[in-house]
Amino acid sequence: MELLAQQLITGIATGGIYACMALAVVMIYQAIHHLNFAQGEMAMFSTFIAWQMLAWGVPYWLVIPLTVALSFVGGVAIERLVIRPLGDAPVLSHIVVFIGLFAIINSLAGFIWDFTIKPFPSAFGEGSRFGGLISNHQLGMIAVTMTVLLMLFLFFRYTRVGLAMRAAAENPASARLVGIRVGWMIALGWGMAAAIGAIAGILIAPIVFLEPNMMLSILLYGFAGAVLGGLTSPIGAVFGGFMVGIIENLAGTYIPEIGGELKLPIALFLIVTVLVFKPTGLFGRTVVQRV
Question: For the whole prediction, is pTM greater than 0.85?
C-alpha cells in the first residue's frame, strides 16, 4: 500500500509537469490549429537561461520571475516574427517551420552551453516529508503546478484579456467584429505557452538533469496528455497530463515487462489508441464546419 501511495504521488507530481506542457500545446493549437513541435525546446532554452542566471549568482526567488518574463517575450517574438508571416500557409509549411525551430533552438542551446549534462538545483531543497513518502521537490512541484493552473483558470474566466483570448481562439471572425485584436491575442497565447513551458522546465530539470535534449520525452508525454484530454479542451489537457503521469508510474512499477526503459512508449501507445478510438479526446468536442 505504501508503494502504491508513493507511486500515485510521484505520478501526480510528474503529471503536473505533463499537464503544463499539454496546456501549452493546447493553447497554441487553439490559436493556430497546429501542434508546436518546438514547445519542448523553448522550455529547455528557458531552463538554460535560468541555470545561467543561477550560475551568475542571481537569487533563486528572482531567477524564476525573470525567466518566465523572458520566456513570455520570446514566445511573443517567435509568433510575431516567424509564425504570423506564415498566415494561411499549408499545413506542411507549418510543420517544416516547427521542425526548423526545434533544430535551431536545440543546436543554439548546445552551441552556447554545450551538450554535457548539468545538475540543476531544486528551489525546494533536499529531504522528504511524511516519512519519506514524498520529497520536498515533488511536493513543491505539485504546489507550483496547482497554483499555475488555478491562476490560468482565474485569468481566462474573469479577466477581459483572458475572455478576449478565449473568444479569439473560439471564433476569430466574430471576435474581430467586436473589436478584439485577434493577432495580438494569438501572440499573447504564444507568450503564455512559452512562460508555462519555462516553469515546467525549471521544475523537471532537477529530476532529469539539464541538457539540450531534456524536454524531448517530456513533450511527448505532454502531447499524450493533450490528445488524451482533447486538443480543443484546456481542462481536458490538464486532466490528460495528470492521467499520463499516473499511468506511466503505475505501469512502470507494477508491470515488470515495462520497467523504466519502456515508459516512453506508453505515451505513444496512448496517443495512437486515443486517435484511433476517440480522435477528439475524452473532453474534446467535434468541430463541424459548414461548407
Answer: yes
